[in-house]
């Protein structure tokens, strides 16, 4: 059994115990700084990671919403294109077919008993008639009747020629008419104003 005895004076021993160990203090401070900086770095990295994950999720949701909206807009554009095609065909029908039908109806209404039509030529905006009548006054009356029709814009003065056909005196005539733009005769639709109290 070994026993160590410190034979130094008591005051010297106590002064050495109270002396500060610089190397041990630096090592302790270094370890504390390392753990503090490392923990702060890990916390900052984790916080940035969570922020980036949330940002990516938000951008993916926004992208999916944009894709859905783009699909809806594409479908709406396709539907509007189909409606436009219907309107274009309807407008072409108004411009091409309906004026001719309206003129034929006006001609049937305005034709006097003593006047008949042999040939009829219709081109966009113009009509040319050729026929015969018993009297020139009936041809003039026929022209005035056509002029009263809404689809007719103007009627040229008829060109008449007195002829004898099958021993009967007749009047051959040529009549030219200008037609209105049938689409322009349709009154525009005005928007309905909301009442003051309605939302």
Question: How would you sum up this structure, described in words?
Answer:
The protein is α+β, with helices and mostly antiparallel strands and 199 residues long. It has a domain of 87 residues: 2-Layer Sandwich (Gyrase A, domain 2), CATH 3.30.1360.100. Helices cover 55% and strands 20% of the residues. It has 4 helices and 5 strands. Strands 1, 2, 3, 4 and 5 form a 5-stranded antiparallel sheet that branches. Helix 3 packs across helix 4. It is rod-shaped and about 170 Å long. The relative contact order is 0.08.
Topology:
Blueprint: H1 10-18, H2 22-96, H3 98-110, E1 115-123, E2 126-133, H4 136-147, E3 152-155, E4 159-165, E5 168-179
Antiparallel strand pairs: 1-2, 2-5, 3-5, 4-5
Helix pairs in contact: 3-4
How would you concisely characterize the structure shown here?
The protein is 55% helix and 20% strand. It has four helices and five strands.
